Amino acid sequence: MQDYALFIEGRAQPSASSESFDSFNPFTGAPWARIARGNADDVDRAVRAAHNAFTSGPWPQLTASQRGLLLHKLGNLVARDAVKLAQLEVRDNGKLIAEMQAQLAYVPQWYYYFGGLADKIEGSAIPLDKKGYFNYTRSEPLGVVAIITPWNSPLMLATWKIAPALAAGCTIVIKPSEFTSASTLEFVKLFDEAGFPPGVVNVVTGFGSEVGQPLVEHPLVRKVSFTGSDATGRIINQQAAKHFKSVSLELGGKSPNIVFADANLDDAVNGAVSGIFAATGQTCIAGSRLLLQEKIHDELTDRLLALARTAKMGDPQSMQTQVGPVTTRPQFDKVAAYVDIAKKEGAELLLGGKPATRPECGSGWFFEPTIFSGVRNSMRIAQEEVFGPVLSIIKFKDEDEAIAIANDVRFGLASGVWTQDIGRAFRMAERIQCGTVWINTYRAVSYMSPFGGYKDSGIGRENGIYAINEYLQTKSVWINTGAQTGNPFVMR
Ligand code: NAD
User: In this structure, are residues 159 and 446 in contact, taking their beta carbons and an 8 Å threshold?
Assistant: First the structure.
């Protein structure tokens, strides 16, 4: 068993209670690490450290270019340690080593990109309508940011927040998921090596009610940047509102992946599989509703079944494995519960629908790739996020019906459209109500392209130039260059 402490003011620290909790390897189902169990006292210490680092000491004295350089150095260190960090994530969250190595090799780009952006944050000179005044704006950091992350892709999702927050000049307290805390605690050691002053980045591990809630409510926290379920996002939004804190919420989805009869069906089949079985369906952007046009419904379903049946399950540390375990025991139970719900609702089970008992799955939390057809969009299996390898196939007639079904859900995170008709591609991109539309591809992301949700999928955008605005506030400065100070009772 490995022990992990909190990280406050640049060094590992025990939790105030000295308690810990176990972190499990989803492939073996056994605990492998003990994580410090933080509480409100630890949160207070970490937030005060972040606040001190924001208001005094070297961090606020750095030029924006110097901040950018630190981020660049951090990116280099992540690149150096990418394989080690990827292996740690696999052990803790069961995602495939192939996927995690690719993710960790890509993560440095966020630090380079936002490091480069740090000294391009500009104010503006406003050409006022009033003579005798000069008016300009300053873009200033919000202050201490609380970063709360889920258990899937912990380092990648934390990075989407850390890079722009630090580029903006904020300081941060991170609370990773209680299911996958180890990689974040290993990763933050690199901040010291990169040269970040102590207190700029802090980590308090623990549970939502014991660490997450006091962190959101702490009066010195000015911004909450959260990725997780819509249920938790709603609570956080309400708590943050009490203190008028800025929030960014990246929440769940029930994304439609829409295949028209004119699509390249070879690509579409691959896109459907990658949309739902990659990462064992545990992604917010999972294409969990596969909308098939009537004419190709049967053919595509057959091809999909044939491909899904070949998926190799097993040890996520093996480069050959294609479907790994479900990350947590409660999530495993939730997937099984949704299969029962779908059956009761009358959906037709075509594949899987049960825990995987193949020898290569050992004692891990594996669930067979599962496909339902004959799904109606009003069924719970089509409306609620399962967050597992469970696909719902829904038939549609034409473009209008595809749009009606795609949009008839409270989420709006992502979507896929498969067609070779360029006009249709543009029309669909315009009419689908969600933050990302992929045409003839699925599950592509970049540090340069905005990402976020419509409707119940969230508030705010990550990635791309404008993501930095989530961590900035605007100040307007007025200078009298010669205007007469006239009647004091009249607005100037
Ligand atoms: P979750 O909401 O259960 O937990 C997320 C984090 O919030 C954890 O760190 C948890 O401890 C913390 N938390 C729980 N209660 C809290 C409270 N009251 N106050 C503050 N913090 C609290 O989500 P999860 O199960 O870890 O992750 C899966 C969910 O995340 C799915 O819904 C998925 O769609 C979503 N997700 C969204 C994106 C995106 O970018 N939109 C990306 C990945 C995952």
Answer: no
Cβ of 212 closer than 6 Å to ligand 1, yes or no, is: yes
Residue of 161, 181, 182, 170 lying closest to 139 (CA atoms): 170
Which 8-state DSSP code applies to residue 465?
Answer: G
Per-residue pLDDT tens digits for 178-207:
999 999 999 999 999 999 999 999 999 999
Entry pTM: 0.96
Closest ligand 1 atom to 231 CA: 2
- Token pair for 147: 């970063």
Question: Distance between alpha carbon 375 and the CA centroid of its chain, in Å?
Answer: 28
How many Å lie between the centroid of ligand 1 and the Cα of residue 233? Answer: 7
Helices 97-106 and 108-117 pack at an angle, to 10 degrees, of 20
What separation in Å is there between the alpha carbon of 285 and the centre of ligand 1? 14
Numbers of helices and strands, H then E, in the chain: 16, 23
The residue ranges of the chain whose pLDDT is under 50 are none
| Annotation says 368 is catalytic | no
Query: Is 435 touching ligand 1 by the criterion CB < 6 Å?
Result: no
